[in-house]
# Entry
Amino acid sequence: MLRIEKIKEENNDILRLIGEVDASNSVLLDQSIQEVVQQGTSFLLIDGKELGYISSAGLGVFMSYLDDFSERGIRFAIFGLNEQVGEVFKILGLDRLMSIFPDKSTAIAAQHES
Amino acid sequence: MNPKFNLSCSTAALTELRSFLQQKLAFYRLSEGEKHQVTLAVEEVCANLIIHSHACNPKEEIQLEVKEFNKKIIIEIIDKGNAFNLLEYQVPNLNQVIEEKRKGGIGILLVKKIMDEIQFESKNGKNICRLIKNFQP
# Structure
């Protein structure tokens, strides 16, 4: 089961992922990111606090947008991943390709610094 | 509990697969992180078979069995589709995946990084993939 909540906070778009992302529902994640990109955003944050599991189907969705984000000047960050899910990003080395933060405030602070 | 599980070839059945694996792996001395990763690796192989070898036909099945041998957990994944030998599969590098905006291809990379050993055999139309993880006795 996956539920995605879209939240707009000032100029930041947050997608809160609740549940598990696998091959049966990664298309929902894809659609949600697509919508945010099309509506226009400068900073897209993924709230992973309630993400219990993600398989390569979901990781692949993030990866497929990385070029798009940089071409459109969209900043992208992920925060709040639990230890096990965070470890999966690290196994693939995705923590070096994506900005991953412990929580929302550090993710937003890093955005202001750079 | 029965160490065997029949998985219907539908991505909707992956949730059931995860709960079966979580229950089985609970018996072994693996960290929570390792259990999570082994579950993920098995799911990656099964999702691949469901989508690419069985065209998501829920009438077809993949059989799973969890065994233990010599401080190793062996997860056997048996199917009768077109053989997919992940040992021969050339995993993409991450930059390729990003450039080509492909949404697949990294699953097998995960499997290879997580498992200690992978075996594959195919005979008489039956494919057996064994994912092996060492554990502390």
Q: What stands out?
A: The longest helix of chain A spans residues 56-72. The longest strand of chain A covers residues 12-21. The interface with chain B takes residues 1, 20, 22-24, 26, 30, 53, 55-57, 59-61, 63-64, 66-68, 83-85, 87-88, 91-94, 97 of chain A (CB under 8 Å).
